UniProtKB/TrEMBL annotation:
Name of the protein this chain belongs to: NIPBL protein
Highest taxon above the source species: Eukaryota
Region: Disordered, residue numbers: 58-81
GO molecular function: chromatin binding; cohesin loader activity
InterPro entries found in the cross-reference section: Scc2/Nipped-B
Gene Ontology BP terms: brain development; chromatin looping; digestive tract development; embryonic viscerocranium morphogenesis; establishment of mitotic sister chromatid cohesion; establishment of protein localization to chromatin; heart morphogenesis; regulation of gene expression
One Gene Ontology cellular component: Scc2-Scc4 cohesin loading complex
Ranges of biased composition (kind: Basic and acidic residues): 58-78
Length: 143
């Protein structure tokens, strides 16, 4: 995974780079396994939904902090703007992929190197570990 992080260009976060690599892998193998077209669309939709949910949750938590702490209002507004900007850039990335046909996705590839199945599985596991349920799984087990 660190290999793909090292190839990240300025302005794009590491998660977005991993998403690009995974979508590239799925696109390359759609001819041998047509179900990967559905997987690719599912991942794009899920990531879009996750971005929306994370943004709403972050804004709600900041509003709760605003009501309890009036002194840090200017700092919170700046942070809310940063959250919205990051969310919009992620959504813009996902929208650009949705508008791109799978066969045209090869022009968006970050390098000529392709990932093999094991690397794709590792990327999927890492991205899944970043989801809220995976992060709170220990809490569910202890309860």
């Amino acid at each position: 995974i660190t290999f793909y992080f090292s190839q990240a260009s300025g302005g794009e976060d590491e998660i977005q780079q991993l998403q690009k690599v995974l979508l590239d892998h799925l696109d390359e193998n759609t001819e041998t396994d047509p179900s990967l077209v559905f997987s690719r669309k599912f991942y794009i939709a899920q990531w879009f939904r996750d971005t929306t949910m994370e943004t709403e949750k972050a804004i709600k938590s900041q509003k709760d902090e605003d009501s309890s702490e009036g002194a840090h209002h200017a700092k919170d507004v700046e942070t809310t703007g940063q959250i919205m900007h990051r969310a919009e850039s992620r959504k813009k990335f996902l929208r650009s992929i949705i508008k791109t046909a799978p066969s045209q996705f090869s022009t968006l590839r970050m390098s000529s190197d392709t990932v093999d199945y094991e690397d794709a599985c590792l990327i999927v596991r890492y991205l899944a570990s970043m989801r809220p349920f995976a992060q709170s799984f220990d809490i569910y087990l202890t309860q």
